[in-house]
Design brief:
Helix 3 links the parallel strand 2 and strand 3. By secondary structure, the chain is an alpha/beta fold. Helices cover 38% and strands 12% of the residues.
């Protein structure tokens, strides 16, 4: 089992920090975000996940300010290879060795640390061989700048190619009841290779957390507005799944978000979910999932109710889809 799962197994749930600064509505004011991160640590979170992309570096700066004095007691993960271009102002994917080295150096500076425990290639660069990207990160492992290498949103084939160059400690991708792509090949590949599987958006980008009933209530720049499952006509169809889903949560005696997280955790002991939230109350709610064990019958009910065929709409729009390397279900 990997260091990611064993060293920070208590708790076995990490904190995705993106939405403090990026993608979901208006970023929290800095003082409120720092208070939320301190509260997360105090309640038991130790695994904190950020990236170069988030807020154009602002999320790393935030974590640097909030967690600097706690550095020896946390597991810090960040990502590179995807950023907001300094000149273009738009998202750029670049996994070239020189770019990754520069981004690692910038991440270290923003996070105010000398070492990042886990550093992911955020996206596969179609113009750079995965072996070259991983080779560059491996050099930085030797130099002590990063402790381990991860990959994000890649296929099992890409994982195996990368792992042949240097051990891949973690593979991060979206995984929840309504995003099952990992079940095609990646979940098994990570298990075989001893790679931790880090599940982001494990409560289906809030859909399974009972917090969104009307997509018109989303902030104008919320990324879900551009995701097909949240298009009004598709979202209306997906909402019909929730009545029975909430009944199952009531039967289990947990919240809808906890039910979603418990299902993810039940899919393998090498899985580490990293739900993201800006709410301290939701952080506590998510963390309490580790006390919930689902029966085989409940898991069966959930699998029948919400899966790749019962959900309406694709995971990503065509423009977003071209950025990832994950396996896809045949239509």
């Amino acid at each position: 089992m990997t260091t990611l799962k064993t060293e920070f197994n208590n708790p076995g749930i990490g904190l995705g920090c993106m939405n403090l600064s990026h993608a979901y509505g208006v970023p929290l004011p800095e003082d409120e975000a720092i208070k939320a991160l301190h509260a997360a640590f105090d309640m038991g979170y130790r695994h904190f996940d950020t990236a170069t992309l988030y807020g154009g570096g602002k999320n790393e700066l935030l974590l640097g300010k909030a967690l600097k004095t706690l550095r020896n007691n946390i597991f810090l993960a960040s990502k590179g290879g995807m950023q907001i271009g300094e000149q273009s102002g738009v998202k750029e994917i670049n996994g070239a060795p020189a770019t990754l080295r520069k981004q690692v150096e910038n991440s270290l500076r923003r996070l105010q640390v000398e070492h990042i425990d886990l550093y992911y290639l955020h996206r596969l660069d179609p113009n750079t061989a995965i072996e070259a990207s991983v080779g560059a990160l491996a050099e930085m492992v030797k130099e002590g700048k990063i402790g381990a290498i991860g990959l994000s949103e890649v296929s099992a084939d890409t994982l195996r190619k990368a792992h042949a160059v240097h051990p891949i400690a973690a593979l991060q991708t979206e995984y929840s009841l309504w995003s099952r792509n990992a079940e095609i090949a990646v979940l098994q590949a990570t298990k075989e290779l001893g790679t931790a599987f880090v599940a982001f958006s494990p409560v289906a980008r809030g859909f399974l957390a009972n917090g969104l009933q009307d997509v018109d209530s989303l902030e104008p720049k919320d990324i879900r507005r551009n995701m097909p499952r949240f298009y009004p006509e598709n979202f209306a169809a997906n909402l019909k799944l929730l009545e029975q889903y909430h009944q199952i949560a009531t039967t289990v005696g947990c919240t809808p978000a906890q039910l979603a997280l418990a299902w993810v955790c039940a899919q393998g002991n090498h899985i580490v979910p990293i739900p993201g939230t800006r709410s301290v109350a939701h952080m506590q709610e998510n963390l309490q999932t580790q006390d919930i064990t689902l029966s085989a019958d409940i898991i069966r009910q959930l699998n029948l109710l919400i899966n790749q065929t019962s959900v309406t709409g694709n995971r990503y729009s065509p423009a977003q889809q071209v950025e990832i390397d994950t396996e896809e279900f045949s239509s």
